[in-house]
Predict the structure.
Amino acid sequence: MYVYTQTEPGLWTVGFYEPNGKWVSESDHTSTEEAAQRVAYLNGSKSE
């Protein structure tokens, strides 16, 4: 399952955690809205 987290001021990173707990980043975004849309798309939403 993809999630997003704030990785620095003004930057949210989309990614997922491997079973061993390692973070794997997929993309970076400048707003929570963009990050949330990307997460929804990657998790199976029909629109990005």
In short: The first helix runs from residue 32 to 42. The radius of gyration is 11 Å. The chain has a mean pLDDT of 95. Residues 3-42 form one domain.
